[in-house]
Amino acid sequence: MYNILSKKAEEFIDDGEILETINYARENKSNRTLISEIIEKARAMKGITHREAAVLLECDLDEENQKLYQLAKEIKDKFYGNRIVMFAPLYLSNHCVNGCVYCPYHYKNKHISRKKLTQEEIQEEVIALQDMGHKRLALETGEDPVNNPIEYVLESIKTIYSIKHKNGAIRRVNVNIAATTVENYRKLKEAGIGTYILFQETYHKENYEKLHPTGPKHNYAYHTEAMDRAMEGGIDDVGIGVLFGLNLYRYDFVGLLMHAEHLEAAMGVGPHTVSVPRIRPADDIDTDDFKNAISDDIFAKIVTVLRIAVPYTGMIISTRESQKTRERVLELGVTQLSGGSRTSVGGYAEEETEDDNSKQFDVEDKRTLDQVVNWLLNLGFIPSFCTACYREGRTGDRFMTLVKSGQIANCCQPNALMTLKEYLEDYAKPDTKQKGEAVIQKEMEHITNEKVRGIAKGYLTQVEEGKRDFRF
């Protein structure tokens, strides 16, 4: 029985509710009156229910679909402006005891190169990332209680934060590790992590168990309830997502939104971010084995309706996607982007090669961080390396309150410009720097609060003089 407030996975992600929702959406895919009503409700920019979102996803009326794309852009512009937050993944270890059939880290894969970074090697990786210009990382590691215990992750976080190389510093470490205990989540919180990220992969319990036949991850309930435990452990910001292509996309789309609704209702605040990865080739993994892969058009529609349904939530897209696909969805709702990514263990300090089989998946967008920054500037976006909200305590419900009120722009816009200025001064190539300076000059005039604009101009001057890390 569906119960949004329940702490039991099979009650807040209820199979019957999802199937009813999918059928309802199919029955109303051409119901112009209902679709128009939902769109009008969505214009208030306060979100819509999973059932309403399913109807919009299924909508086959061209005119109404064009309204959806336009509305998604308007919502993104209102809450996030033209800022795009930059990050990079950092793979610590690919040792894993799980049997996930879609991941090359699965324990039966005997020809993958198993690696685990020492603290010295982590330091080399972080310096390489700092020299690129990154300030925000997402830690990744396989699930292995012997090789990758929580103590190893905590020590690695401490190492990462301790490294100051030239003007470089990692200011926010997000963590994507396996579901764990409330006690371990408290330890991660005390270590100063930003967002705890965990992908559900699929919300369909039967298929989930088939995709994870062995290992701790086989436990559907323990995995699905992880975000509740993380928040009980004091972690304010959590990030959810599914791996589109493993299961029927309609089912996982509805499940994803039901999870977001549950966190809002039961824990007081919804997810900080939603990720939308798609299945990619990798060592020992053939995407032809997965028959539920989705087209670019469906993918764009999913991003569009997610932005409408959860307007306050950040949306992440990685280098799994091509430049063309990433450019398309940037307009529709994406707010965070990886650049210059390596998905192998130790792939930054040493040049990653095509035959490196320690990678978790093949990267589609292989451009350097500077090339991605240059591209974003050409498109009219502000590449942002800001981590201010996390370090100023604007997390969880405090962050969401500022977003919902629209006041967050008074912090985000100047912070984005100041961190872009740091990147331009320290890392950018001449063409990127020229374009970035022009964008900063233009965007400064869009800061409507005169006092904030004046302070920001002063900070920008100090950045030119060599000072760093100003924030509102």
What's this, in brief?
This protein has helices spanning 9-12, 15-27, 32-42, 50-58, 62-80, 119-132, 150-162, 182-190, 205-211, 220-224, 226-232, 249-267, 296-309, 323-330, 369-378, 388-391, 396-405, 409-426, 430-444, 450-464, and strands at residues 83-93, 136-141, 164-165, 168-169, 172-176, 196-197, 238-241, 273-275, 314-317, 336-338, 382-384. By secondary structure, the protein is α/β, with parallel strands linked by helices.
Task: Report what the structure shows.
With 472 residues, the protein is of the alpha/beta class. It starts with 8 loop residues before the first helix and ends in an 8-residue tail after the last helix. The chain has helices spanning 9-12, 15-27, 32-42, 50-58, 62-80, 119-132, 150-162, 182-190, 205-211, 220-224, 226-232, 249-267, 296-309, 323-330, 369-378, 388-391, 396-405, 409-426, 430-444, 450-464; strands spanning 83-93, 136-141, 164-165, 168-169, 172-176, 196-197, 238-241, 273-275, 314-317, 336-338, 382-384. The chain contains 20 helices and 11 strands. The mean pLDDT is 93. The chain is globular, with a radius of gyration of 21 Å. The strands form 2 sheets. Strands 1, 2, 5, 6, 7, 8, 9, 10 and 11 form a 9-stranded parallel beta sheet that branches. 47% of the residues lie in helices and 10% in strands.
